[in-house]
Structure formats: C-alpha cells, structure tokens
C-alpha cells in the first residue's frame, strides 16, 4: 500500500476546511470539493440517506467528467469509489468520487477518502446541531411573536391568519392553512396564507374534508398527521390536494379544546419534512393554540365588560332619565288640563307641544335602552333590533345617528313578511335622505297602532329628514293594501316618507 504521508498536508488542509463552516450546506459542499481535490477525481458527489434531514438530495462538485453525460450517484461509472459517512453511528449518506486522472483509484485514495469521511461525519454532526439550534431559535421567536400579536387585540379572523402566515414562513411551506370543525362533523379550511399574500389562492378557503375519511378522524381526535405527498395520498380527498406535496397537519389544541388544525403543505416535489422540523412545528402549534385560547378569553372579558357597562347605562337611563321625563310629562299634562279653561290659548298650545316633545324623548330613550341591551356581535332577530341595525348602518354615511321611535307592541303585532317590506322601505328612505344635501336630522317612527281607512289594523313607517328640498315634500309608499294619510312631518321643511301596510 502506498504511504499516504506525502499527501498528509493536503489531507490536513482538507480536514480543516471541512470543519471551518457551521452552515450545513456549505459544510457538505466543502466535503465533496475536498474529496475531489484529495483523490484527483474529476467529479465528486454526496447523496443523503434522508433528504429531508439536510434539505438537499445531493451535493456535487462543479467539476464534471471530461466526456460523457453527467450521471447521478445511483448510476456510477466503472472505476468510481465510494465510502459511507456516519453521523452518530448512523449512515448520513455516501461520498463518491469518479473520473480519476491518470488511472484508476488506488488504495491510498480510498484510505484518504475514509479519513475524510470520518472527519466529515464530525463536521456534519456539528453543523446539524448548529442548524437545529438555529431552527429552534427561529420557531421559538416565531411562537413568541404570534403570542404577542394575538394578545395585542386582534379579532378572531386576523388571529388565525397571523398563526397561518408565521407558521408558513418558519416551515418554508407553500401555504399555511387553518381548518376548523364544521357542524356536519367535517373540517373546513377557513384561513389560507401564501407567499404572494392573496387571501384565498385558488379557492382554497372553503374546501371541506367530509365525514368518513380516516384522516378526518385523526384530525378531529387532535392527532398530528404527516403526509409525504398530498397529491397521491389516498387519505386526502379534497380537490386542492394535487397542488401540494409534503404536508404537516398539526392540531391546534389547548386544555382539551380543539380549535382546529394547522396544515403546512409544500409544493409538489418539495423536500420532505425532517423529524426536527416536525417536532418544532408541533411545539409551535401547541403554543399558538394556547395563545389563541388566551386571546379569545381576553376578548370575552372585554366584551363582558362592555356588556356590563351597557347594562349599567341602560339601567341608569331607565331608572333616572325615563322616570324623571315621565314625571315631568305628567306634571305638564296636569297643568295643561287646568289651563284649558283659561283665555290664554297660546300657553295651552305651548304646554301641548312640550308634552309631545317629552313623549317623543321618552320613546327615543327607551329605544336607546333597547339598543344598549342587544349584543353587538349578534344578528338582530326582533323588529326593533333590525330597524336599529339599519339606522346604525346609515349613520356611517350620514355622519350622525338618526333618531328612532316605536309606538305600540311592534314585536308582537308586526308579522315577519311585513317586517321584510318595512325594512326595504326604510332602507330606501335612508339611502334617499343620504343623497340629499343639507341633511342634519332624520327621524324614524314605526307605529303599530295605526288604523287604515278600511278599519284594518296597520303599521306605519315615517322617515323625516330636514334636507334641502325647496319646501316641504312628502313621498307616500305602501304595499298596495293600505292607504297613506297625512300626518307626521306636516308643516316642516324637509322630506317625509310614509309607508304603511295592514297587519
């Protein structure tokens, strides 16, 4: 056997070069370059036993054989030389050299290659530890950033998008998806984050995993699912699966509560997820789930505080303001009756107007109390609530809140079909008022105590605004069964819209 000492300086230099970098890809590139240099090979390559571990399929030198096409490591030309690289007593990959200049590879070349492979195993182990530490640091920082963002007051939809987007970046995935259980015992994609920032790339949001899938049973049970190729895995049945390759589906679960599933698919043909990446992503999902639960609890406390304040204000309005206004109205009515026989008709008229204004004020305060007692996030189910929702929506365009009054037992007297027609008329009247100039006041009245000319019970909607019309103007509408009689708004400059219908 040839003495390897003459090439010892080159071997020492190669070993030092191999261990000079802690970045894994750079370390692997140093190894194949050193192998080609030591053995005088025209090309060298290193393929990995677990591509996901290094994030690469193979590393090759820039040099190629002088003649013939390039060959992958599994199609070795005659006369090639290869040795395994062990990291922690496990085969990390195989180092190959080919195309020896001046003849075949010698025992000396093999011995040098084995020494290099031994040192390479140590260098790869160090680089792997460094890369794992960096990955762990990034995932921990990402989890901390998500927790901070969620606890800063984001709403539910923004919170889920924050989790999906941060996880997608950390996992180097093509998408970050959040699935949540459906009422039909399935799971639906409710949030999607992609590199281009589109909210719903290719109709992904809304995609549902229907009941009966073994995969669904695992997800609903809060178990992680790891998929090598989404496009070919028979457990996936969604129409978007063909777009993706390797995938992790991780439970967002905290304290026994399943919030949903975090899916992190990569593009088709992308590298598989390593064991370290799976572990770090699962830990991130657990931390994100806890942050989501804490954020939801915080929002619930804030909503409860708002409800308590609204209830307190409503009680104060009812117990103090309404009662005082009612008592004042009673006093004025009594004074008006006593002055009926006196000669001063002007005083009598003034008192009458004051009583009417107080009654109107009481009605508006009661409407405000009703609005305060409604949960703002819930869709209104009563006529009062629906009317108040329409006026609140108009307030955004008008710049002020229209006043609203209800007369009679509107909830009990007005049937649902009539409610629908009334709301359409109200919406049209408010939109018309918003288009007029000079509108600073709008009064909406719903009266369920009206009688139509034919004697039938009816409901009347009156919408008055003080906009510029060149004089008082009146617009009468109806369902076709009722009549429109003059009343509210007469004698006032502005526009009065009257709509009524039989009950």
From TrEMBL:
It comes from the Bacteria. Coiled coil: none annotated. Residues 7-134, 155-302 form the GAF domain. SUPFAM superfamilies: GAF domain-like. Residues 459-503 are annotated as: Disordered. Keywords: Kinase, Transferase, Two-component regulatory system. Gene3D superfamilies: 3.30.450.40, 6.10.250.2870. This is GAF domain-containing protein. The lineage of its organism: Bacteria, Bacillati, Actinomycetota, Actinomycetes, Kitasatosporales.
